[in-house]
UniProtKB/TrEMBL annotation:
<dbReference type="InterPro" id="IPR036179">
    <property type="entry name" value="Ig-like_dom_sf"/>
</dbReference>
<keyword id="KW-0393">Immunoglobulin domain</keyword>
<dbReference type="InterPro" id="IPR007110">
    <property type="entry name" value="Ig-like_dom"/>
</dbReference>
<dbReference type="InterPro" id="IPR013783">
    <property type="entry name" value="Ig-like_fold"/>
</dbReference>
<keyword id="KW-0325">Glycoprotein</keyword>
<feature type="region of interest" description="Disordered">
    <location>
        <begin position="80"/>
        <end position="101"/>
    </location>
</feature>
<dbReference type="Pfam" id="PF13927">
    <property type="entry name" value="Ig_3"/>
</dbReference>
<dbReference type="InterPro" id="IPR050831">
    <property type="entry name" value="CEA_cell_adhesion"/>
</dbReference>
<dbReference type="InterPro" id="IPR003598">
    <property type="entry name" value="Ig_sub2"/>
</dbReference>
<keyword id="KW-0732">Signal</keyword>
<protein>
    <recommendedName>
        <fullName>Ig-like domain-containing protein</fullName>
    </recommendedName>
</protein>
<feature type="domain" description="Ig-like">
    <location>
        <begin position="234"/>
        <end position="314"/>
    </location>
</feature>
<dbReference type="InterPro" id="IPR003599">
    <property type="entry name" value="Ig_sub"/>
</dbReference>
<feature type="domain" description="Ig-like">
    <location>
        <begin position="143"/>
        <end position="229"/>
    </location>
</feature>
Amino acid sequence: MGPSTAPFTISLSGLPPAASVLGSCLQPAPAQTPVTIVLTPPSPVVGGGVSLAPQPPPENLVLCSWHRSATADEKSRILSYNPATSPPQTPGPAHTGRETAGPSCALNIAGLTLSDTGNYTVLIMNPGVLTIPVTLRVYEILPKPTVTPNQTQVLENGTFTLTCNSSPSVNTMLWLRDGASLVPSERLVLSPDNWTLTVLGVTRGDAGAYQCEVGNPVSTNRSEPSNVTVAYGPDSAQIDPPGPIALTLGSLLKLTCVADSVPAPSYRWLLNDTDTKETGSSLTFNLTTWAQQGTYECWTHNPVTGRTAWASVVSRYHCHGLTDRAHFWPCAVCGGCPFQCDSPPQGSTLSRGQAPPPPGAAPL
């Protein structure tokens, strides 16, 4: 029997076998300008479309096929394009209904989704065989990221960690505190992917509102603040006004205790080692008896840090003069001035400007 004279044909539905036959029969394409795949737009967005076009357009195009993989296998073939047939496009196993072929073997994809991201390959025959891989990345308009935890309280010199949660299509990630970007250091440590921020050896200056900002070629978005509070103090306390304090009967005395502490401390006031039952930062009262003079103490306590600080001030009565029968002796004497007694001695009076007798002397 003589040799077969059946004509040679190319199957559009099963491109790899045809490609194999052509690859053995056709010589490689002669040297020419390198062909690349140009994406339009260069940063395609979810819901939009994209065109993947060989540039420069192939000359003397015989056949081409697009594949959703890094290799030109039949299982991943999206479509084949033959400009000499009608219709010129033949769908393949990986065709989703959203892909069409354009002039010069361009692949158009509509209704993009994130799952369209990946490796693609075009096989071009003109009449040589050319295989060109390309990577398609589809971007989304980034939603607002979140930072967890959204509120943190940490002890001074402690450690805290924040995590940014966002879409996988993020290209850039930035951390900010009170609106200013943070620079990594020995204390400010970022994970390799920048998603986690760890602050070591916390100082009071590390308190503030932390945010993460994410971006990609088509959008940028910033999280709501995550508030970090640094608990510290009190290191010391002081009373305003400072002592010694000169008291006057009938006047108003207000003492204020000042202590730098976060959270705000609790307060406790003592007079001559006796609890006054006052728990505010200020102590206010009318001076009505000599028993209100002495040593006032303010005790402050931070329940988070466990630290306590206190301050004291000494107060003494100051006499500006005596009103007839207004003050009596003997009860207490300060600088030669007597103080009002709880029950004045019978018939004991002093006139304005009259000095009291020395202790032990008989009443007037």
